Amino acid sequence: MAMIDLKTIRNIGLAAHIDAGKTTTTERILFYTGKIRRMGDVDEGSATMDWMAQERERGITITSAATTSYWKGYRINIIDTPGHVDFTVEVERSMKVLDGLIAIFCAVGGVQPQSETVWHQADKYKIPRIAFVNKMDRIGADFFRVVNQMKEKLSLRPLILHLPIADVEKFYGVIDIIEEKAIYWQEETLGTRFVEKAIPEDYKELTKKYRQEMLETLAEYDEEIFEDYLEQKPISIEKIKATIRRETINRQIFPVFCGSALKNMGIQKLLDAVFDYLPSPIDLPPVKGFNPRTSKEAIRKPSIDEPFSAFLFKAQTDPHLGLIYYIRVYSGVIKKGDKVLVYPPSRIDRVGKLLLMHANKRSEVNTLSVGEIGVITGLRDCKTGYTLCSPKAPISFEPLKFPEPVIYVSLEPRTKMDNVKLDKTLRYLQIEDPTFKVRLDEETSQRIISGMGELHLEIIVDRLRREFGIECNVSKPQVSYRETILESAQAEARFIKQTGGKGHYAVVKIELNPGQRSEGVVIKNKIKEGRIPRQFIPAIEQGIKEQAEVGVYWGYPITDIKVVILDGAYHPTDSSDIDFKVAAQQALRDGFMRAKPILLEPIMNLEIIVPETYLGEVINDLNARKGKILKIETNKKEKIINASLALARSFGYATDLRSLTKGHGVYTMQFSHYAPKEEARSKPGF
């Protein structure tokens, strides 16, 4: 087996706010690395990585797509992620397996809400990043405003390495601050060629200022640079780049570049920066997990000599292969036909095919090795977040956590013949997308599907029709509320029945207390030893969880409560798990009704960008919807309104905003938090 030089591998993602130019940037990267011969276009619906019909029609990325290409002897594994908040699960699971990230910002829009979301997701997974300010060719582009927003909104330390050469009308090129050169791309060659020239006279002072800032920043992290800078000695380019690389990997600084992906300017230098400053698999600490057999901590070094381990970060339905699974290999090597241990099911499966992906195209390989991102087939039903490892050296990595859905619709097939097919398809779609949920309404026997937003569910229904040939009747979107309590209460439930033979006997006493927002349902067991055998405690906890899922007062899931199991009683022969489960459910229902139940509704954050002319109409409309204006900023002739709004009052907002602003207004909306619904103090009818 040929040895892999891990130093030459980069596992990177591209992430940004919607319409910042991620997919266009990815297309240029693939073109300049020779992966594709013709650059696709998002607006024309020909982007390589946006392969789904819905993506091409709408001009947005819906599902993360992976590919591999090569640049100057380096291998780059790329994941292009969605920018729309409804598909944030795709970003979350991609972040888990990336080593580095290109964060793309629009030179006009700046740091927008989803930019902040993906940045904080990258913080959570401790991912080193470089920033690319895109769309410098647009009217209203302001590079320095975006850099200042990075400092203010993201609390980071940007290190400017490129300066734009531009005026009000046109973007000409960039100045490389490290090498002190001006770079101009030749439009007639589609940007494949560029020339390096001396820095224009009117940019020399600006370049001097930011080069000095760069050196002063680096001097804080490197003694050698500090001494040379004080003594005004020349500092080598190699030393500068090595220090930037080290501190970028340490997440102390974030290099900033600029360009225009659409105009084919700046991409080659961005590729150079990926290999100059972002880490290879061996530049990062070993990954940590635990041994599921001993519960002790376990680690895996990024080496081919270590036992095989991989993280399953995405499941996808393939029309020819069924369920396929995207994995990131953290250690060792896996071969076609090998046996792997799958956690948490704790079972052994045999590997079918191994594939490398290019969007929805694939090539079969015999092995996947440490540092690689690929696809595996042949496993039984697996879910996002599972760990694959060598049966001889078990390890389990920390699973992913996903947000709960905030919106739902009822769904029924138009023909009864499609009933079985629909249920099977919905099961597959739930495996693909952990934020997509399906349940059966016990009263109406309707299928209820829920997701992260109107667009999310719209895409699901469209996929049912196009990919699986199932036409469905769909209700209007409904808000997925939550139930909680304001006060504490105790309740005791007795499930005792004698039927002549073996009877039923269970007594459960619990205490309910209000919890912290977003805490969910927390259960604590305080039963004294001997009051109830230990084997019945899991049944009590299961009963509480199941009742919390279906709610009590309004029929919505219960959240943000603390349940303490205080006491109980059992019968040596009549008691069973089901008895304690039923008693626990009854106790929760009784206690919940005494604890002043209230309804929580999802509150959304909005960012609305409108010409100043329409500011009054937009604010009046928000006030009519009982929205809350948080902040209004000015960017050139546009106003940026930050507001919060109940999801229930946001339906149809896209159409209303277009009407109010004659098509000039744009907005983004994302889930913020749950808050009490003031009108919902009484039984349904609100």
Instruction: Report the span from N to C terminus.
Output: 67 Å
**Overall morphology:** globular
Taken as a percent bin, the fraction of beta residues is 25-35%
CATH class of the largest domain: Alpha Beta
Task: Tell me the helix content.
Answer: 25-40%
Count of discrete domains: 5
- CATH homologous superfamily annotation of the largest domain: P-loop containing nucleotide triphosphate hydrolases
Q: What CATH architecture of the largest domain do you see?
A: 3-Layer(aba) Sandwich
Low-confidence stretches: 42-62, 680-686
Largest beta sheet: strand ordering: 18-17-23-14-15-22-19-20
The structural class is: alpha+beta
Number of helices: 15
Describe the structure.
- There is one protein chain.
- With 686 residues, the chain is an alpha+beta fold.
- The strands form 8 sheets. It has an 8-stranded antiparallel beta sheet. A 7-stranded mixed beta sheet has the order 2-3-1-4-5-11-6, sandwiched between helices.
- A hairpin with a 6-residue loop joins strand 12 and strand 13 (297-300).
- The protein is globular.
- The model is unreliable at 42-62 and 680-686 (pLDDT under 50).
Task: Give the gist of this structure.
This protein is of the alpha+beta class. It is built from 15 helices and 37 strands.
Write the layout of secondary structure elements.
Blueprint: E1 9-16, H1 22-32, H2 53-58, E2 65-71, E3 74-80, H3 88-95, E4 100-106, H4 113-124, E5 129-134, H5 143-154, E6 158-160, E7 162-166, E8 171-176, E9 181-185, E10 194-197, H6 204-219, H7 223-230, H8 237-249, E11 254-258, H9 267-277, E12 287-290, E13 297-300, E14 309-318, E15 322-331, E16 333-335, E17 339-343, E18 347-350, E19 354-358, E20 361-365, E21 367-369, E22 373-376, E23 387-389, E24 407-413, H10 419-432, E25 437-440, E26 447-451, H11 454-466, E27 472-474, E28 478-479, E29 482-485, E30 489-497, E31 504-514, E32 521-525, H12 537-550, E33 561-570, H13 577-594, E34 597-611, H14 615-624, E35 628-635, E36 638-646, H15 653-660, E37 666-676
Parallel strand pairs: 1-3, 1-4, 4-5, 5-11, 6-11, 32-33
Antiparallel strand pairs: 2-3, 7-8, 8-9, 9-10, 12-13, 14-15, 14-23, 15-22, 16-21, 17-18, 17-23, 19-20, 19-22, 24-26, 24-27, 24-28, 25-26, 29-34, 30-31, 31-33, 34-36, 34-37, 35-36
Helix pairs in contact: 6-7, 12-13
